[in-house]
Amino acid sequence: KQSNAADFVKSNSEYLSHPNNSAFSPAADEDLTIAFWSNVDSATSSNVAVTKWNSVVTIEYYLYGSIASDSKVWFTYALAGSSSSISAASGTTVSSGTWHFVVAQMDRTAGEISVSVDLGTAGTASTGSAFKANTGADFMLSKIPYADGSLDEVAIWKRLLTSDEKTRLYN
Q: Could you give the 3-state DSSP secondary structure of residue 12?
């Protein structure tokens, strides 16, 4: 989480993107786990880390840190058949200038999303609605809005990670 990290500067509008690809979107019957290390440089209103969102119309999911307001990491996932979404906030707060390990999960069977920081208490949100499958949006790091900080070891699985797997990634 140091030498290979991508460092983004908000004032330079820096971000990384990959064209839409099924590797970044679970199918209608798959779960999703996103994990990464993050070190936010400044306390802006929000620092988006990972997103699959080209515009309001094509939102699928996004993770962002709201350091300036509540110091939590938020995970938002779009619901199928509507323009609505659900959001969950981490139970652990984050601070700028410190590396934090973030894990977000979407569990289709339970109808639940969760997000945790540094293996702390996960914040959750549940819905009776189905989650959107691939929206066609590009996969992006540090965009909408742009972020100030570093991201490292970003990984996506189309399944839920176990507690042991998350611990191994953290350590």
A: helix
Give the confidence band of 76 by pLDDT, cuts at 50, 70, 90: confident
- Quickly count: other Cβ atoms within 10 Å of residue 23's Cβ: 10
Dist. CA 166–CA 25, nearest whole Å: 20
User: Distance (Å, rounded) from C-alpha 77 to C-alpha 89?
Assistant: 12
> Cβ contacts of residue 140 below 8 Å, gap of 6+?
15, 16, 17, 18, 50, 51, 52, 53
Contact 67, 74 (CB under 8 A): no
Residue 105 CB: number of other CB atoms within 10 A? 25
164 phi and psi angles, rounded to 5 deg: -65, -40
Give the mean pLDDT of 95-120: 92
Instruction: Report the relative pairing of strands 72-78 and 123-126 from DSSP bridges.
Output: unpaired
pTM of the model: 0.89
Given a cut of 90, is residue 136 above it in pLDDT? no
Task: Give CA–CA dist 55/137, Å, rounded.
Answer: 8
Task: Tell me the C-alpha to C-alpha distance, in Å, between residue 110 and each of 15, 68, 113, 117.
Answer: 33, 32, 9, 21
Residue with tokens 């691939």: 134
